[in-house]
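Usage example:
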Amino acid sequence: MTHRRWFTPWLLAAPAAVWLIVFYVWPSINTVVLSFSNAKPLGGGRFTGLENFARVLDDDQLADALLNSVVFMLVCLPLLTVLPLLIAILVEKKLPGIMYFRTAFYTPVIASAVVVALIWGWVLDDRGLVNGFAQWLGVVAEPVPFLTDRWLLVFSAISLTVWKGLGYYMIIYLSALGNVRRELHEAAAVDGAGPVRRFWSVTVPGVRNTMLLVSVLVSVSALRVFSELYVLSNGTGGPGGRAMSVVMLIQLYSRGFTGHLGYASALSIVLLAITIGPMLMLLRLNRKAA
Amino acid sequence: MAAHARRRRNARPSGFATVTPREKALRYALLLLVLALTVSPFLWQLSTSLKGLGEDIFTRTPSFLPEQPTLGNYAEVARTIPVWAYAANSLIVAAIVVSGNAVGATLAGYALAKLRFRGAKLLLGAFLATLVLPGEVTIVSQYVTIRSMGLADTLLGVALPGAISMLNVLLMCTAFQAIPREMDEAAIIDGATAWQRLLHIGLPNVRGMLSVITIFAFIGAWDDFLWPLIVLNDPQNYTLTVGLQYLNGTFSANPRLIAAGTMISFLPIVVVFAALQRFFFRGVEEGAIKG
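Running the assembly step on the lines above writes:
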């Protein structure tokens, strides 16, 4: 009864280990293998050397997608690093009813990106709320083409991402704010520091590492954007497909008669190349925090 | 020194811990502002879903409240796409993902945290290494794998890869590690097997983390879009998110119907979250969420 069986630990770890190999290790290897082939959703699979990567360098749509991703990242980064911190400070104090506010602020996070994008698609529609209101005010004569102009589409998706992300990063800041020592605040208050002063000299230094963590998280998720742009543009990627993201291109090439799994894999490696830096940083930050 | 300390102690009631009425008013005003920003789009969508065909939803001065609220759009969207079947499909996927993670991540997390075995370090390192890999990078070859298993265009194919998430294994491992070693040692002396220790010492002490990972496994599976979009072909098999995009893209859409569809996807998750939010926020306070 009490003797130790050597295989018990492995028995417990086995399902996860199988998943690791089948759904992480093997697909990683296979992505590299496929990227050197002309595999199609139907047939194909011949070794074609660097052909896919040559195509990567010559793909205007990919260049557009990369530019969109960079813009996406540069706009999201400051907004989603700072605004959620301010909201976290707002909900930190345990006022009556604060739990309801916290929960409500988190709802956009738990909603599917598809749901959120469909809602915003209707709000930003030519005949939707924003355009209707703007025309009623007389600010614009014609509806603003939020969903049919390349850059307006990208910025609409950005505002949606920011709106959906506020609650997520708020929670991360909230748990970090709990660790900022209350005595420091009290001491600063006693010494006559106002709220603004305390924010800069107590709060910000206290959550500096978290701000770094959040900014890296924001960058990675901006580079991986898919659903928001896909749904807002109805899968088209906007006029001429110029408002695509890299992941949208991967999805585009993974399906259908025009699909090209080899090229989609090469694009996956491009995605890895642009995300690996922040991802490694994330791992380091997380280990430091753990 | 002493005077300073006393001053601080005296200052506490009037200074920091309590909130002046002015600050309170300001805080509530700001809270309500943020509340309006976060919640009003959902309410607007809910309102649209309840407006009948007779009501002009395109007017420049739309009313927030439906004039004659009707559930007709919910019946109509079910006639246009099999929305209830899609919801059932999403539920099946979510059920597989939730149970897979609850069991698989708990077992592996426990083994890694509490049992010594050859290769444990290597395994932990491998789990950790997967975190630098964004899921989208391997999604194409993931699809190739699922297809070669004969699971393309099936719900099992949608659910399987996420049924044990490496992040959840690591989170459970961290939770088990927090249990003091002495508790285990005492049980070993009493002759408890690894399995008994997991059931009677491990599990009761990781309930917080377990509820957080199951909540998120459910939300993640229910909300997922890209992966089911790639795996599923036949509109009969769609999950709710893919079905909603299908509704949006295929039919020159009536915003009322799309609104009704989005609410069918959104409301269950709100209910689940509202019911379980105290576990979630408790988990946050215990440091379950680090990003």
